[in-house]
Specification:
Blueprint (H helix, E strand, L loop, with lengths): L8 E2 L8 H9 L2 H22 L16 H4 L2 E2 L19 H6 L14 E2 L5 H10 L5 E5 L1 H6 L7 H28 L3 E5 L3 H5 L1 H7 L5 H14 L12 E5 L15 H8 L6 E5 L18 E7 L9 H15 L4 E5 L14 H19 L4
Parallel strand pairs: 1-9, 4-5, 5-6, 6-7, 7-8, 8-9
Antiparallel strand pairs: 2-3
Helix pairs in contact: 1-2, 7-10
């Protein structure tokens, strides 16, 4: 397939967990949970195939949270703040994570010397690869995200510590990306929803009294790029993307993006794909004109924060100018986030999720017809 494998229909990895899987997780019996996960994943794969999605994943059904694929397999993560805590701290002590809307349950303090105990996403890739004839994708939290989400980033020493941890985590993530490519996975997306507050006018103003915004942005950019550079001996058609979304409309976009910050992220980026919210309000959109040709833009036009369905006509009205400007090669159509970054916090029901994904497919067929 030409260019980005014609991955014209996107979703962001996390799907609503079926009732049986949620019950098995609550019961806490490991063998029953493993069986329920496998059954649920296979069912979800066939649903994605029937919906016509360009690439399929396991729904993150084996994770408690988006970040758990790393927290569960890398030693040293601890409480984000507060003595005597055994889990992530309450929100309020990490201003960047607060601005990005990351729930407290998903924040951990990154270790200075992280050590992987084995593969991170081997099981997540194995079942899709064995069960469907479709390109398989896996979403991993980016190293910059993992190092910064549980840190206050309050002074140069804290930023330096987070940077050192991020680069150590980048080596672990890079090794996992290489292993996934070797398994036969076609596409890996690195998720970092901490970027929007650092890239937008309102977000930067909100953070200005709490962190050195440009230093933190540089920390994330350098670490995330380090995870995808020097990926030796991977298939030529393997792709890596950067996903800025989390659980619906991107926060802090009401006054638009800060162009120099966006340039710092995207100039000479090693990523093949950028996934972002693309809301109805033109002022809140990432400026498409600033994105160089060759970087595929996955535009989140279908809103996962509400079960109310958009009309196809409204989506096409939003998308038509993009296609007129960029053509149909460097664009994909998507939801604006996954459907359940945490297992216990689905954004809607399974039926509502299916309707949203079908809406993405319907809009995409307007532009690509039988190609998808």
């Amino acid at each position: 397939m030409a260019d980005d494998f014609r991955y014209h229909i996107d979703h962001h990895g996390s799907l609503v967990r079926p009732a049986g899987l949620r019950a098995a997780r609550a019961a806490g019996e490991p063998e029953a949970l493993a069986a329920a996960e496998e059954e649920a994943v296979i069912a979800a794969l066939h649903t994605q195939r029937r919906l016509g999605l360009s690439a399929v994943g396991d729904g993150q059904f084996r994770r408690e949270h988006f970040e758990s694929v790393v927290y569960d397999h890398v030693e040293g993560f601890g409480p984000a703040a507060g003595p005597g805590r055994s889990g992530p701290a309450a929100a309020g002590s990490q201003p960047l994570a607060d601005a990005a809307g990351i729930p407290a349950a998903r924040r951990c303090r990154a270790p200075a010397g992280p050590a992987a105990t084995g593969r991170l996403a081997d099981a997540e890739a194995a079942t899709p690869l064995a069960n469907v004839e479709r390109p398989v994708f896996v979403v991993l939290p980016s190293p910059g995200y993992l190092a910064a989400v549980g840190s206050a980033l309050a002074d140069p020493a804290a930023i330096d510590a987070a940077s050192a941890s991020a680069h150590a985590l980048a080596a672990i993530i890079r090794a996992e990306i290489r292993a996934l490519a070797g398994q036969g996975v076609a596409y890996v997306a690195l998720g970092n929803p901490l970027y929007p507050p650092l890239l937008t006018v309102a977000g930067r103003e909100r953070l200005a009294n709490h962190v050195d915004v440009d230093a933190v942005l540089n920390l994330l950019v350098e670490a995330d790029r380090a995870a995808v550079t020097e990926l030796e001996e991977i298939p030529e058609n393997f792709r890596v993307g950067l996903d800025l979304t989390d659980s619906g409309p991107v926060p802090t976009t009401e006054r638009g993006y800060h162009q120099p910050a966006l340039d710092a992220l995207l100039d000479e980026t090693p990523f093949h794909r950028l996934c972002t919210d693309f809301p109805a309000d033109p002022a809140a959109r990432l400026p498409v004109a600033a994105i160089k040709p060759g970087l595929v833009l996955s535009l989140g036009v279908v809103d996962t924060s509400t079960a109310v369905l958009e009309t196809v006509e409204a989506l096409l009205e939003r998308l038509d100018p993009v296609f007129e400007q960029r053509g149909d090669v460097d664009v994909a159509i998507a939801t604006n986030s996954g459907f359940a970054a945490s297992a216990d916090r689905p954004l809607m029901s399974e039926d509502e999720q299916r309707a949203k994904l079908r809406l993405v497919e319907t809009a995409a067929r307007y532009y690509w017809g039988n190609e998808i």
